[in-house]
Write a structure and sequence with these properties.
- This protein is α/β, with parallel strands linked by helices and 130 residues long.
- The chain has a single domain, classed as Rossmann fold (3-Layer(aba) Sandwich), CATH 3.40.50.2300.
- It has five helices and five strands.
- A five-stranded parallel beta sheet has the order 2-1-3-4-5, with helices on both faces.
- Helix 3 links the parallel strand 3 (58-61) and strand 4 (85-90).
């Protein structure tokens, strides 16, 4: 069942170095939020650049990527867009990663990108939205 109500025309940036993960995340959001505009980035640097022009409402952010990590990129994206909601979506599930996400005030969702984990990410992204 689509969850577009109140978020029609929203923009999502998927940031993950794995093409398979990006495709899985995109498919989930296409099904549940069909009116959303979705773009993808494969690195933290690319995500920062894209977010400045695209101005996403929502970001799913992997942690381990070539170059800049998701933990480095997320604060920079937020600094440029205070309204953006970012969820960390990663297989890096060590306690230190959870603590880093918490210290940045980011929601943490463990991969793999299953229906349940992506629903958890979507629920966080939509929390507090009109």
């Amino acid at each position: 069942m689509p969850q577009d109500v109140g978020t029609q025309g929203s923009k999502l940036l998927i940031v993950d170095d794995s093409k398979v993960s990006r495709l899985r995340i995109r498919a989930f959001f296409a099904l549940h939020c069909p009116s959303w505009e979705v773009k993808e980035a494969s690195t933290g640097d690319e995500a920062i650049t894209m977010s400045q022009e695209f101005r996403p409402d929502f970001v799913t952010m992997d942690v381990n990527m070539p170059g800049m990590s998701g933990f480095e990129a997320a604060p920079q994206i937020i600094a440029g867009n205070q309204r953006v909601r970012v969820v960390i979506l990663t297989a890096n599930i060590q306690e230190s990663s959870r603590q880093m996400a918490a210290s940045l005030n980011l929601s943490f969702v463990a991969k793999p990108a299953t229906e349940a984990s992506l629903q958890q990410a979507l629920d966080f992204l939509l929390a507090g939205r009109p």
